[in-house]
Amino acid sequence: MSEPKSLLLVAAAALIDVDGRVLICQRPPGKALAGLWEFPGGKVEPGETPEACLIRELEEELGISVNEACLAPFVFASHSYESFHLLMPLYLVRRWTGLVTAREHSGLAWVKPSALGDYPMPPADAPLVAWLRDLI
Length: 136
Description:
Elements: E1 6-15, E2 22-26, E3 37-38, E4 41-43, H1 50-62, E5 71-80, E6 84-93, E7 107-111, H2 128-135
Parallel strand pairs: 1-6
Antiparallel strand pairs: 1-4, 2-3, 2-7, 5-6
């Protein structure tokens, strides 16, 4: 039997604009999985809720403010990487304040759910595309 892997909790958001497009962010050079497209978010810190994590990460990564009431739990990903297991709840966000700006990513794209499959994503993010395509 293989060694148990540590569990990494990451919260992610699918920001949806008035045209029904979803925001995806390109991982910058020098980071793991650089160049792939992902949903914004990040690691949940000890003692932090996934919602508080997303509010913090969306401010840090995109320069926007989100009210916790505007975070709608949607679906989650569960994926084993080589050295850890990732659990990632995905929240839908349709309301925020501020202008979305790439502060930590090399690119941003607003994409119709039907076209999300055209963007290479990390293994944990990719299965979420079908849920977004079918349910929003």
